[in-house]
Design brief:
Number of domains: 2
Structural class: mainly alpha
Shape: rod-shaped
Helix content: over 70%
Number of helices: 7
Radius of gyration: 28 Å
Distance between the termini: 53 Å
Strand content: under 5%
């Protein structure tokens, strides 16, 4: 067992890609639909950025500390939940609709957000969507990111239970090294005994 874990390629993680979309969508949304000076602007942008950045930092720190990776992934999820609350508050305060299963555009939106992860898939629509549409798309992305990250964290926790943290991995590596040393010494001792026996046999034959 190696001491350092292989670093995951966070750019290939679908929930990271969706978090990138959330950040860019949120940045445009608050500039377009919130009044200058509204403190919610900074709060929403920072929440979206925190979600994205903590995924990156967690994946990087996971090389040496799975505990830190799990902790930062939880921070990212908390930020996404905070962002979700802000989008819901926006819709409610302006008497806009929160799209649910009975809404005619709900199924299409869910399918789109489920199947598309990359920013370039969403960018062509940013100038076409109104605030209600953007907020509902953002909420769908928040839902998918949270669900995907929950599954990812469960896999991390399972691995942590099975392999332990870096201290356990270092101990296992040391034990493995010592075991290999003992095995090699034992093998050499056996070879040495065999050579001695062969030498004695040859000497006896000459006599």
């Amino acid at each position: 067992m190696g001491v350092l874990r292989k670093q995951s390629n966070w750019e290939s993680l679908y929930f990271y890609q969706k978090s990138q979309v959330l950040y860019q969508l949120t940045f445009i949304f608050v500039q377009r639909y919130l009044k200058r000076g509204d403190r919610t602007i900074d709060q929403m942008v920072q929440a979206a950025r925190s979600g994205k950045q903590n995924i990156v930092e967690g994946s990087a720190d996971g090389v040496t500390s799975m505990e830190m990776e799990i902790k930062l992934m939880n921070v990212a999820r908390s930020s996404i939940k905070e962002l979700k609350e802000d989008y819901e508050d926006y819709l409610v305060s302006r008497q806009l609709r929160l799209w649910q299963k009975n809404h005619p555009r709900y199924d299409k939106m869910i399918d789109f957000c489920k199947q598309h992860n990359k920013l370039e898939d969403y960018q062509p629509y940013f100038d076409k969507w109104d605030d209600e549409t953007m907020a509902n798309v953002a909420l769908s992305l928040c839902h998918f990111v949270d669900r995907m990250m929950t599954n990812y964290e469960q896999r991390l926790e399972k691995t942590f239970v099975e392999e332990g943290g870096i201290k356990e991995r270092m101990t296992a590596a040391r034990v493995g090294y010592r075991t290999n040393q003992k095995d090699e010494i034992s093998r050499l001792q056996q070879e040495n005994e065999q050579l001695r026996a062969e030498l004695e046999r040859l000497k006896a034959g000459k006599g």
